[in-house]
């Protein structure tokens, strides 16, 4: 029950479940129970980028020429993105690492959270460039009621899981009376349930909440405004697609029961709760759309269109993990967003400041003798 | 080569059926992926990354086989394909929701 940073148990990692088995001891990747997590790590590493590679200097001029209500949309959106990545840069590590039991998943979680910290650093890069005093923006994130409402919902699942894990590690299963007189019941099944719902909520964050914010960022760039920002957001979106895929894999592996039969029971028990997590987040995102456009719309995007996109993307993401869709909408009201989300439509000219399709560290080691057959001396 | 849709196995230009309707023939000379061909034939399909890692184009199939140019990273169940990174190798029937 107690977490150890190096378990002496001579276990076979291939027989461990993803979570709640023995803590990982040797970080080895020569064998994998779920090779998909190793593939995700490699893909994420090949996506590596740094905010400083992207020139955002023109955005300052663009920003100053925006009308006040569009500045509100841009800055509020950026604040929301900053909040999401602040949470994601640490929470997968803090909440999930103490529970994980296979090395490839452990390393994927660390790689995932690390990439979120790059995103956080890039918001500072953007904000520093467009305003004189970044503190005005950052300080408001913990004051702004609209942002706090979402923060509470997103971090709530993580915090509950972290607290339940702590109790499990400290007391073990059973009924316990705390020094305060309070009686608590600790059960592994209840903890597994918290994990399942936490991963579900993270999936919603990665798969819906982020995409609503991307829509706003790209709507500016569609008008050739704030393009440095959009270049960065495009790199972030590429990373987020991997993160949402990883949470979909985790959810589907859990639900399949092949990994931990109890998790499959929990997935069935939590079916309705999972639907409600999606529904609640979608409604919250629509309320956010109303806040963003409270002083006026922008060309190409308004409250109604963004709300319809929320419904569309919610349906798509629910079906991906085997949940029924909950909205009538089946059309993407902003098809242009896909051009920004497509990784192969990035036209790369040498004079561009950053090359987003450039894969760092991707080397083809499999050279056959036949490959050299055209050469002659 | 024949255009007969019943001529299943070794067709070089496999037929793509959608909801039981014969939709188009996939021509690898013209299109790198099934997704590109679907778009060219105005078949509505979701997409985002177009590289096999986001899963947005996930499509259910009733029969038929595909070949992936790159092994996709996105989650797919048995009977599902990612048109963005595959080519049909036999006649194939797609289901749209």
UniProtKB/TrEMBL annotation, chain A:
Report the EC number(s), separated by commas if there are several: 1.17.4.1
Q: Which SUPFAM superfamilies match?
A: Ferritin-like
GO MF terms on file?
Answer: ribonucleoside-diphosphate reductase activity, thioredoxin disulfide as acceptor
Swiss-Prot/TrEMBL cofactor(s): Fe cation
Q: Which UniProt keywords apply?
A: Oxidoreductase
In its keyword annotation, does this UniProt entry include Oxidoreductase? yes
Which Gene3D superfamilies does this chain map to? Ribonucleotide Reductase, subunit A
What NCBIfam families does UniProt report for this protein, alphabetically?
PRK09101.1
> What family name appears in the similarity comment?
Belongs to the ribonucleoside diphosphate reductase small chain family.
Mind telling me what this protein is named? ribonucleoside-diphosphate reductase
Q: Which organism is it from?
A: Neiella holothuriorum
């Amino acid at each position: 029950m107690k977490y150890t940073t190096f378990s002496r148990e001579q276990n076979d990692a291939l027989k461990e479940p993803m979570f709640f088995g023995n803590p990982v001891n040797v970080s080895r990747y020569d064998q994998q129970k779920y090779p998909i997590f190793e593939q995700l790590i490699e893909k994420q590493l090949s996506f590596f980028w740094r905010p400083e590679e992207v020139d955002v200097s023109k955005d300052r001029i663009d920003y100053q020429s925006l009308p006040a209500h569009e500045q509100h949309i841009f800055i509020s959106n950026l604040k929301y993105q900053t909040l999401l990545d602040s949470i994601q840069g640490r929470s997968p590590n803090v909440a999930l690492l103490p529970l994980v039991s296979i090395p490839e998943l452990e390393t994927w979680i660390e790689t995932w959270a690390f990439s979120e910290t790059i995103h956080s650093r890039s918001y500072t890069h953007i904000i520093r460039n467009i305003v004189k005093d970044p503190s005005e923006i950052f300080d408001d994130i913990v004051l702004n009621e609209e942002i706090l409402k979402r923060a509470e919902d997103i971090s709530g699942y993580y915090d509950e899981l972290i607290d339940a894990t702590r109790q499990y590690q400290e007391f073990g299963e059973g009924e316990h009376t705390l020094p305060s007189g309070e009686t608590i019941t600790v059960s592994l099944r209840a903890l597994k349930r918290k994990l399942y719902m936490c991963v579900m909520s993270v999936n919603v964050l990665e798969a819906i909440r982020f995409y609503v914010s991307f829509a706003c960022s790209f709507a500016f760039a569609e008008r050739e405004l704030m393009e440095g920002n959009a270049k960065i957001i495009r790199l972030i979106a590429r990373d987020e697609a991997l993160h949402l895929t990883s949470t979909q894999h985790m959810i589907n592996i859990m639900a399949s029961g092949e990994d931990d039969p109890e998790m499959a029971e929990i997935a069935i028990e939590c079916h309705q709760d999972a639907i409600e997590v999606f529904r609640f987040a979608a409604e919250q995102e629509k309320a956010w759309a109303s806040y963003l456009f409270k002083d006026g719309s922008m060309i190409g995007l308004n409250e109604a269109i963004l709300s319809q996109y929320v419904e569309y993307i919610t349906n798509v993401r629910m079906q991906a993990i085997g949940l029924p869709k909950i909205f009538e909408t089946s059309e993407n009201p902003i098809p242009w967003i896909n051009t920004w989300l497509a990784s192969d439509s990035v036209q790369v000219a040498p004079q561009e400041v950053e090359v987003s399709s450039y894969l760092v560290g991707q080397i083809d080691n499999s050279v056959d003798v036949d490959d050299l057959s055209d050469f002659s001396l | 080569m024949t255009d007969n849709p019943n001529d299943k196995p070794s067709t070089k230009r496999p037929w793509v059926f959608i909801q039981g309707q014969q939709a188009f023939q996939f021509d690898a000379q013209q299109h790198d992926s099934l997704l590109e061909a679907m778009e060219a034939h105005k078949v509505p399909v979701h997409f985002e990354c177009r590289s096999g890692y986001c899963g947005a184009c996930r499509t259910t199939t009733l029969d038929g086989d595909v070949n992936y140019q790159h092994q996709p990273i996105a989650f797919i169940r048995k009977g599902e394909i990612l048109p963005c990174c595959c080519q049909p190798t036999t006649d194939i029937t797609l289901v749209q929701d």
